[in-house]
Amino acid sequence: MRNHGVFALYPLVPVTVSFILGLMAGSLLLPFVALYVWLAVTCLSLLACLVAVRHPFGQSMAILVLFFMFGGLSMTVADRRTEVHLPDEPSVYESVVASDPVERGRILRFEAIITSGDLRGKRVMVSLLKDTVDCHYRALSVNTGFVFSSRLEPLSNYPGSRFDYASYLKRSGVSATAFVYYRDWYSASIDMSGISLFQRARLAFLRYRHSLLSAYRHFGLDGQTFAVIAAMTLGYKSELSADIRNVYSITGVSHVLALSGMHLGIIYMFLSMLTLSRRPSLLREILLVMAVWSYVFLAGMPLSLIRAATMITVYSIMSLSGRGRMSLNVLAFTALLMLFINPLSIYDAGFQLSFVSVAGILILCPRISGVLPAEFRLSHPVVAGVWNLFVVSFVAQLATAPLVAYYFGRLPLVSLLANIVAVPALTFILYASILMTAFISFPSVCGFFALILSFVTSTLNTILSFLSSLPFASVSGIELNEVQVCAAYVMIVSLLSAVRILFTRRRHIVVD
Fold it and tell me: How far apart are CA 446 and CA 443, in angstroms?
């Protein structure tokens, strides 16, 4: 009997779902199930797959069980990998600053990578007490050698806070925290041969990002205009004020400040237009993929950009084979690959929002966009473009609404209108920033682009501030638990299924 349905069209989807369920089970059972147990049942599942080779249905079920068990094994291994033995006494550590230092009152907070000793290669979240007299801390920046004396502490949460800060640091690859007094450190030249080539490359890209940010300031960008442009183009959000963050959050366009697949898609389209040939070729796709991943490194490698870059890489490979259509299979493969590399990403809010929004767009957008007849879309391209933007924004907001309410306790109500303004502005800002960077050797040209960028960004901030001041801009104070989030998604899927059934019946009645 032939296999029909969604599992035949998208075989990687059930496999990825099984792997994700296994990761969640492994996380819940960490205190109770040992590593060797997961390894044993995974081997038995693999044996069952081989035995059931002549029974397609049974083998399919065995494969799903195999990936479930492999998910539990991967989560257990990932948890073991994050375990670090920390010295009981204060010690002196040689390290290098690995993130842009952020000032929080009298504290300067940043990540540092230890470059020598038993803990070399481990990342530490440093809280440095600032010296307010000599202000030596101002000399610290990415790639600066940092020698400090402190007692490394295991990851823990802030007392009274609902945010699981320890898990956030653990997912980010941080192994410990350290509080450093202003007298217990100094900057020095550090031998970085003890850390990996990957870490050194990332630090080099972050250092180059720092030089681009300095160029932004040099050409006249300042204040919250600079902060927004730096966030949108380079992922530097340290100088965003609480007010501007709140404005973008209330209007539901915070995603334009956090680098995501939208940003990378816009940049990929821009680079594609610069190529002389529109037809896929090996050299063209290699150059595009290299440029995309360079940008990911430059932005500090957030999970959302890694997801988008992985999807673009898979898309480029498929386009060379004549299969250029993005699908749920590509999304599922991307999720499977990223979760295999870092199983702890499954609990990252950005990871969840990113994949849920893309899945919603892939599933719903073609159906909703088809409401407008093809002839009308061809004869009215401007209207079709606005309609497509509206549909994509609506679907993304609908798909992520339960998660947004769960993580942020707020549900924006003006997000559709705000996105119609913010997305074109983001596109223009990205393109203008790329051109400004390309002409960085010509100060007058860069000054012209900086002037335009400042005007567009200021106008965007003004419009969003107005929308956020409306009495119905958002609903706040929402508190959901995990069960309620799942129930919300069941309700959304049920309503969409009911609408589809009613629409299909009505269309059949009209045809008859």
Answer: 5
The runs of H, that is alpha helices, within 219-343 are: 223-234, 242-250, 261-274, 282-298, 303-320, 328-341
**What would the two tokens of residue 432 be?**
């203008």
**HEC readout, 32-84:** CCCHHHHHHHHHHHHHHHHHHHHCHHHHHHHHHHHHHHHHHHHHHHHHHHHCC
CA distance 474 to 401: 12
What's the one-letter identity of residue 457?
A: T
Amino acid at 107: I
Q: For tokens 């989560």, what's the residue?
A: 75
Question: In 3D, which of 92, 411, 448, 365 has the Cα closest to residue 249?
Answer: 411
Q: What gap in Å lies between CA 489 and CA 359, rounded to an integer? A: 13
Tell me what pLDDT residue 509 has.
Answer: 60
Give the strand pairing for 145-150 and 174-180: unpaired
What pLDDT is recorded for position 1? 39
Q: Please state, in angstroms and rounded to a whole number, the distance separating the CA atoms of residues 71 and 74.
A: 5
Q: Give the distance, in angstroms, between the CA of residue 69 and the centroid of all CA atoms in the same chain.
A: 27
- Counted residue by residue, the chain has a size of 512
Q: Which residues contact 3 (CB under 8 A, 6 or more apart)?
A: 56
Residue % of the chain over a pLDDT of 70: 94
Under 8 Å between Cβ of 91 and 44: no
Between CA 418 and CA 472 the distance in angstroms is: 13
Using DSSP's 3-state secondary structure scheme, residue 153 falls into strand
CA distance 403 to 499: 23
- Interval 381-418: pLDDT, tens: 777 777 887 888 888 888 888 998 888 888 888 888 89
d(CA 173, CA 324): 34
